[in-house]
Specification:
The structure is a homotrimer of 364-residue chains. By secondary structure, chain A is α/β, with parallel strands linked by helices. Chain A folds into 3 domains: 104 residues, MurE/MurF, N-terminal domain (Udp-n-acetylmuramoylalanyl-d-glutamate--2,6- Diaminopimelate Ligase, Chain: A, domain 1); 207 residues, Hexapeptide repeat proteins (UDP N-Acetylglucosamine Acyltransferase, domain 1, 3 Solenoid), CATH 2.160.10; 29 residues. Chain A is built from 6 helices and 38 strands. Chain A has an 11-stranded parallel beta sheet, with no helix packed on it. A 10-stranded parallel beta sheet of chain A has the order 7-10-13-16-19-24-27-30-33-36, with no helix packed on it. The first copy, chain A, has a 9-stranded parallel beta sheet with strand order 8-11-14-17-22-25-28-31-34, with no helix packed on it. At the A-C interface, strand 21, strand 36, strand 37, helix 5 and helix 6 of A face strand 2, helix 4, strand 38, helix 5 and helix 6 of C. Strand 37 of chain A pairs antiparallel with strand 38 of chain C.
Chain lengths: 364, 364, 364
């Protein structure tokens, strides 16, 4: 449960709805409780919201939860309001009628997130080590123990968290947030409005080696990784994700891409605009992924592949060939109770022979 | 091989056995070597222990290893001691007879681990940046370059390693250890006796986005993550693991949960008491896992699932449905020599048709 | 595209070829362009190289790309040069004829990588916290906010990046590079010429617990991890990889091993010389892997296994048994369009029964 706003700062419902963008609200129906225009100190789930909070219901199948909620106000679909209007006695909570309750919820959450944040005070913490050649906009915040290398540029209103390390020649756009302990190797470029979570490493060397016969048997010679990583605008990158620098060309993450935690993107990859990549996915080097794709968690994608636009890959799938057509793709071995798995898995190694035996039977 | 204690600090066997808790020891049988009560400077495996160390044997199948060990003392099962007592010549090493040798080993290892540790000196390193509003027990150790935000509380005897960053309003209980470079986002709560390894990130934003038609085609609007992460007592969390904060409610890790390295736990998950999660497992958002489960390494669990108590999932399994019954569950595609895999994998895409053909043959 | 060298520092082709080791070059054929011995400011791919750069072609199937490249010089195979020599008009670019173009590329890339690097200035940054008992060679560089514990030793020409934390008794050889924010727990040993990327954690506790009946039902007792991690010479370790310390014996990474990002290696593992492990692979505790193996990305290997020399495992494979014979091994469930996957996956749980039915039909 999020911390509630101090009542002195909490808006009344009508103020709150005026403050969020979008013309999403159809009507507001007062509840049978005390306040026609209740004060809203926070946003909660139907099950856990307190009487100072607003909640929401996105589907009629959750109607039962409504009866139990303590929320003072609930965002509802028009068809739900139709049912509530006939309830006797009338619901205690106020309703905000809206065709897109999830979107209104998201926007109200954004409002509370900003209200929650401590006042923003720009400046460079005295313990930060910033190279004198770096160009830092005066509105930037640089936290304790951060390190900023030579010739870096950081745009207006960006925040560099405690302990972040920016190598030489790093560029960060405006209004970007680096949470504590992000590492950007030399030359990495990040656009505007990025959100980069703790532990992210951008621009480490790609995994490039070649057998070198001048070395001992089996030894690998390193192929230096001379490219860099380019991150577009409005990109979010989750905690402990790594994106490697290109070998010769660059690794490119396009505008609006959203990447979850512990994702690995290899060198020279290109990810198209607005593609979302869930946690623990791994994309091997030189693969190109189109726009508006969704990549499920723990999905592995081989190197040097081309995945088109609007491709949706289920979690846990291994992609080992190009995908040209939009659509949903899956490849998960079904789980089962262990002994049942053993019985069936033993047959996997005989599939080819079983096919032959079926053919033989058909010929009989 | 662990560093041996300085002989001046090493206990003799009888002292050591008095120092470990538990009444596990049945008897001590002197070896035919020089010392009836040998000095024990460390703990080693049968194969690698030196003559200054104690070792252990958990199963009669390792009896052959006993003949070769150099350990001065070995923890043995009663049935092994029966055999050793008849050996001619008598074994050189002393024996500690015990029905639970692995448990006694664990407790002796704990004794040596504490003996090995440098003396604990509480205090805040001068390079640490601690907000004046934080409440730090005087017995706490805060390492170099750590950062502690506003209104944090840290309980007695806890240690905050070098370079850790605690956001505002973080709470840490008593006797907890944060190894270097742990990041706790604002509002995260950790109980007593936690062990959190380096690179862990607790409380980064969950992966929450909604299509927003007011943005360009395919663009995602961010859903702020207003909950937090609550970690119970006696929890251990491995290196580079990430646990995201809840969207509205909290992400909850119950007492006694043990989490290995590079595990990912999504927003709003709840993990029941004493569940153990091996490395590289990923649990997607809003999934609830019961108590006393074991989750194998690299297992992926989809979001919004419910897994009951005492469920054991083999490594590498993808869980895409609820599991109500206790038991062991597995779903791993069998590996094979590559060409054999190719032959059989080609048939997977024909399984449905093969089933039909078998049915047709049966009808004939 | 990598940053180009300042023209004043860029070598002419003949100088560059003299500077790289190896006698790989068969001949140099001037292009029909302006300079017989062009100045080379960088190295680029055929598609993206500028006129100041050298490029390379490793296979005749990319011949079409040659016609479009802007590179002033291209490294080519002898058989490609034969074709180019007959082209009318003659190619604009110079050719370096060479039987191993990829190896020559790697060496030229190494040359440019060193030329790119800022001048190396040894010394300990004033913000670093170095224990007075540590033995640091005067040629070592220690970056801002690094922490070096008691009795550490760091060999000649090694570099410790910003924010690295070395626990007590860590040993690092000569000419090793730790990028920013690497964590080495107490007692970890690293050889010469290591490259360790940001976010790596070496020596965190292995995942060792035993049920302890003196605790509450289902509770785990911790088994202290008394071993350490030993890293050989010429090892590279990718960003956010974790390698756990041994329980009693050590975890050992042999000479020449190359490890990609986000790899997890459990306690007591032993990895043989020159084995390469791709990103997101996980190796559970006490497994031994031979020399010159390649482990594909996101491969999971169970604990207590033995994998021989020269074994090659495809990405995404789960290894749950020993592998003695050299060769390539695979175990990936084939992906498909989602509905097709559903149809076929439903049959997996019936494989054992289908085999029986085929047998029954055969008996008829």
């Amino acid at each position: 449960m999020p911390v509630l706003l101090d009542p002195a700062r909490a808006p009344v419902l009508s103020e709150l709805l005026r403050a969020v963008p979008g013309g999403l609200v159809q009507s507001v129906v007062p509840g049978s409780g005390l306040h026609a225009d209740p004060r809203i100190a926070g946003l909660g789930s139907l099950a856990h919201a307190s009487e100072q909070e607003i909640s929401f219901i996105v589907h009629p199948k959750y109607l039962d939860h409504l009866a139990l909620t303590r929320a003072c106000t609930v965002i509802v679909l028009p068809e739900i309001e139709e049912k509530l209007a006939q309830t006797v006695p009338a619901p205690r909570f106020a309703r905000v009628v809206c065709k897109h309750p999830y979107l209104l919820y998201a926007r109200i959450a954004q409002w509370f997130e900003w209200a929650r944040r401590p006042a923003y005070e720009p400046g460079i913490h005295p313990s930060a080590i910033v190279d004198p050649s770096a160009q830092i906009d005066p509105s930037v915040l640089i936290g304790p123990h951060a390190v900023v290398g030579a010739r870096c540029t950081i745009g207006a209103m960006s925040q560099i968290g405690a302990g972040c390390v920016l190598g030489d020649d790093v560029e960060i756009g405006a209004s970007s947030i680096l949470y504590p302990k992000v590492t950007l190797y030399y030359g990495v470029r990040v656009g505007d409005r990025a959100i980069i979570h703790s532990g992210v490493v951008l621009g480490a060397d790609g995994f490039g080696f070649a057998p070198d016969p001048s070395l001992s048997k089996g030894a690998w010679g390193k192929i230096p990784q001379l490219g860099t990583v380019i991150i577009g605008h409005d990109v979010e990158i989750g905690a402990n994700t790594t994106i490697d620098r290109g070998a010769l060309d660059n690794t490119i993450i396009s505008d609006g891409v959203k990447i979850d935690n512990q994702v690995m993107i290899g060198h020279n990859c290109q990810i198209g605009a607005h593609t979302a990549i869930a946690a623990c996915a791994g994309i091997a080097g030189s693969t190109k992924i189109g726009s508006r794709c969704t990549i499920g968690g723990m999905t592995g994608i081989s190197g040097h592949l081309v995945i088109g636009d609007d491709v949706h890959i289920s979690g846990g799938t291994g992609i080992i060939a190009n995908i040209e057509q939009p659509g949903r793709y899956t490849g998960v071995y079904p789980f089962a109770e262990h002994k049942e798995w053993q019985r069936n898995a033993a047959v996997v190694s005989q599939l080819s022979s079983i096919r032959k035996r079926v053919r033989a039977l058909e010929r009989d």
